[in-house]
Design goal:
The protein is of the alpha/beta class. The longest helix has 26 residues, at 368-393. The protein is built from 15 helices and twelve strands. A seven-stranded mixed beta sheet has the order 9-8-7-6-10-11-12. Strands 1-2-4-3-5 form a five-stranded mixed beta sheet. The radius of gyration is 21 Å and the shape is globular. The protein folds into two domains: 35-179, 3-Layer(aba) Sandwich (Rossmann fold), CATH 3.40.50; 190-362 and 375-420, Rossmann fold (3-Layer(aba) Sandwich), CATH 3.40.50.720. Helix 7 packs across helix 13 (348-362). The structure holds glutamic acid. Glutamic acid binds at residues 70-72, 144, 146, 178-179, 321, 346, 349-350, 353.
């Protein structure tokens, strides 16, 4: 089985490493080793041509002792049970590490949205939401965007879910999803939150390491929501982007690529391919880009033993979930390359989702300055916590982050015990 097909084994390996190091209580280890609920639904959708297709959807609820289940919905052809289980577990660790009162979940539908019309995607989204029924809820399980979904899909999910309630109760169900559009209850700053959080995290990390961001260089894999926002914000810090890639190909320019200009091009053309102010490059050349920072912000298992040796960056900052395989990570560490792990580096998304949820619950509207300020506080605190833990345990950054997250859940379980 490829890494991609067995992503949960990778998540388990990361968990086991931290559990061993903190000598995790055996009861807690057993409980956290599998998700609490695995929901799989097959649902029919009418296509534009009148035919019908059956879709397979997943919602994996890993853990809710730290708060309601929370995590994105992915629309991608590679969505499979093992992948969603891993992604759900990472959400549990992410919320616990950040101290956000949520648990962990993830969902997805296995199809390629690029091959379907907007009307079909809407029907798929709505019918999937309906199939999930009361398995989601504003105080129970709160979906959000992930790969292949955005504010548009979240608003459709919210609207579908709302139809199940009387008009008088509907407003209180808005927060059943986060990552909504501004007009439909979204938060300012949620669209850029993951990229913004990643840069806030790297601000702290680089300061501790004595590495100046100003004058540095970076390259981005996956110039989508996370990657393109991270790139624009890194550029504002005085760092230069030397290469970018996405599902259409990879481009590079040793003199630098303007992140805003490329984002405008991608918004129009759907991908980086054909961008005139850089040249098309092969994947090997892309991984070998001579830049200080590599931001993998696409899918899981993109940094593997097959390409790890090509990487010459000093830092790999994980915008995606699970981009680095454990084998590749060990080799990178041996070469002195720091991998700042997903559950820390990309946690800005769920953090601002939490702000959105709080705003909906209290009928508040925060301005962008407040969102950014609160996000910065939380990213700074968690990044400093991981650096401290890493030093005291003499371990790698991911294991340090995992030790903090799992240790927090262990304390919760030790106080609560298990029923009956
Ligand atoms: N899908 C994002 C993640 O993997 C965001 C989850 C959320 O906002 O709930 O962190």
């Amino acid at each position: 089985m490829s890494d991609h097909q067995n992503l949960f084994a990778m998540a388990t390996a990361q968990f086991t490493k931290a559990a061993d190091l903190i000598n995790l209580n055996p009861m807690v280890r057993t409980i956290l080793s599998e998700p609490q609920n695995e929901i799989i639904v097959n649902f029919p959708v009418t296509m534009d041509d009148g035919s019908h297709r059956l879709f397979k959807g997943y919602r994996i609820q890993h853990n809710n002792t730290h708060g309601p289940y929370k995590g994105g919905i992915r629309f991608h052809e590679s969505v499979n049970l093992s992948e969603v289980k891993a992604l759900a577990a990472w959400m549990t660790w992410k919320s616990a590490l950040m101290g956000i009162p949520f648990g962990g979940a993830k969902g997805g539908v296995s199809f390629n949205p690029r091959n379907f019309s907007p009307a079909e995607i809407q029907r798929i989204t709505r019918r999937f939401t309906y199939a999930l029924g009361n398995n989601i809820g504003p105080e129970y399980d709160i979906p959000a965007p992930d790969v292949g979904t955005g504010a548009r899909e979240m608003v459709w999910m919210m609207d579908t879910y709302m139809q199940m309630f009387n008009a008088s109760e509907r407003n209180q169900t808005r927060r059943v999803v986060t990552g909504k559009s501004l007009l439909n209850g979204g938060s300012l700053g949620r669209d850029k939150a993951t990229g913004q959080g990643l840069v806030f995290c790297f601000d702290v990390w680089s300061q501790h390491a004595g590495f100046p961001i100003k004058g540095s260089t970076f390259f981005v894999q996956g110039f989508g929501n996370v990657g393109s926002h991270a790139a624009r914000i890194m550029q504002a810090r005085g760092s230069r982007m030397l290469a970018a890639s996405d599902h259409t190909g990879a481009i590079g320019n040793a003199d630098g690529i303007d992140a805003h200009d490329l984002a405008a091009y991608v918004a129009q053309k759907g991908g980086v391919k054909g961008y005139a102010r850089a040249k098309e490059i092969q994947q090997t050349e892309f991984y070998h880009t001579k830049a200080d920072i590599f931001i993998p912000a696409a899918l899981e298992c993109t940094v593997t033993i097959d390409n790890e040796a090509l990487i010459q960056a000093k830092y790999v900052v994980e915008g995606a979930n699970g981009p680095t395989t454990p084998e590749a990570e060990a080799k990178l560490a041996a070469r002195g390359i720091t991998v700042i792990p997903d559950i820390l580096a990309n946690s800005g998304g769920v953090t601002v989702s939490y702000f959105e949820w709080v705003q909906n619950k209290n009928s508040e509207l925060w301005d962008l300055e407040k969102v950014d300020e609160e996000l910065n506080i939380m990213m700074t605190r968690s990044t400093e916590g991981v650096i401290e833990e890493m030093k005291s345990r003499k371990c790698d950054p991911r294991t340090a982050a995992m030790c903090l997250a799992v240790g927090r859940l262990e304390k919760i379980y030790m106080e609560r015990g298990i029923f009956p």
